[in-house]
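Fresh eyes needed here. I'd like your take on this protein's tokenised backbone:
***
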Amino acid sequence: MKYRALTQGLAAILSAQLLVVTPALSQPMGIPSMGPASGAELSPNLERTLGDAIMEQGRRDPQYVTEPIINQYLTELGQKLAKHSSVPLHYEVQVFGMRDRTINAFALPGGYIGINTGLMVAAESEAELASVVAHEIAHVAQRHVARGMTQSSESSHIMLASLVGALLAGLAGSADLAMGVATFGQAAAVDRQLGFSRQAEQEADRIGYHMLQGAGFDPNGMAQMFKRLMHSSRLNESPNAYATTHPLSAQRLADVENRIMSTPAQTYTQSTDFWFVQAAAAVLQAQGGSALLSVQQRLQEAVSSQSGASKAAAYYGLAYAAKQRNDKAAAQQYLQQARQVGVESAALDSLQIDVYWAQGQTEKAWQLAKQAWAKWPNNQAIALDYVEALQKQGLLEQAIPFLEQRIQQWPQAPRFHQLLAQALDKRQQPVEAREAMAQYYILVGALSSAVDQLQQARSLSTDFYQQSKLDVQIRDLRERLERDRLLLERFKG
């Protein structure tokens, strides 16, 4: 499954470079050689360095999904599946969303997996979505992406060298927003050229199937997703990059169906979160105009035809769309209708808090934020809502320890480090604020910016021991930057 979500502007930026690209390349049977940076030498460490550098730029892309309800769901879905991989993973899988209506998913070096909103919306069950994520994790575990990027093709070498040149600029802190977007799109274009052999695809299906089953998802979801994508591709019902760049053969479908027949029958459950994530993805994908009106129409139809969690999620989607249009009254009405369905969801509480703030109902927003955090202590969106409520209530002294606790709870979630930095700065703790901001930049891969923050902290500190600690951190980061630079330089030529 290859990412095709290049905006018109990005496509123009890349068009000159894409002219040298040949049609989709096949996955070689062995590990090809390309001199000093051959696939045989593409260690997991180097692959992760490539992935981190690409994602540092990718997070600047306007199409990168920042909605916490979607982010946490995709992250936890990927982690749940990866635990059941029969092939050891060299690094933690990280799944993120891209705002693009194309039915697609893609893998980048280092365990990063992107899921288009179009795929989230097209899936008719959580198991269908999970089957695609599991398949991509299988490609990551088998290191197909890493090997494909270093195959002995002149065109792939040219594109990879060009990509690395942009990544090196980003590593040095000299990349601007336009370069960041172009770099991420260029990395996606490299990924799009990788074609895996029939054997590699069937092996990814097999490993993905066992992940799906082991994680408690209905393996029928994989067969249903195959059938749906094959059907939509034949009828051209929707842009379907998966079926065009990643052909679905009858043999692959037959293999999955045979595995299902030999699997003992059992009861599977489905998270209600899936329906709310799907509704949010549909609204985010539309952005506005006639596309948003079309989404609202589909959600209205779902309200009439669905029941339970899917019906409540449809109301939630309508409320989310109304909030996007700044129609606070309509958003409130749809939220009330969602509540009447009788399905509880952190997504509903989070959106209701936002609507209360927008309506100026400060006390209601504050009370619901407290209640929601007590009810949903493992939900990042609610945690962020509670932090906002504490700040708006002027309770900075409570917000700081709360953020520190959330960082311990979710150490890899950058947003909490950023909010802690802002809170510490407001409390006149400039050194600690810059240390927290440095951690934020480290987590998003902007190491040069992290060094800048630590240097500022060093210049502001008057404590010898604190200065010594900062000196060690600065030295370690500079050494890491130099190692990453040297690793990337291997691909520049």
Summary: The mean pLDDT is 83.
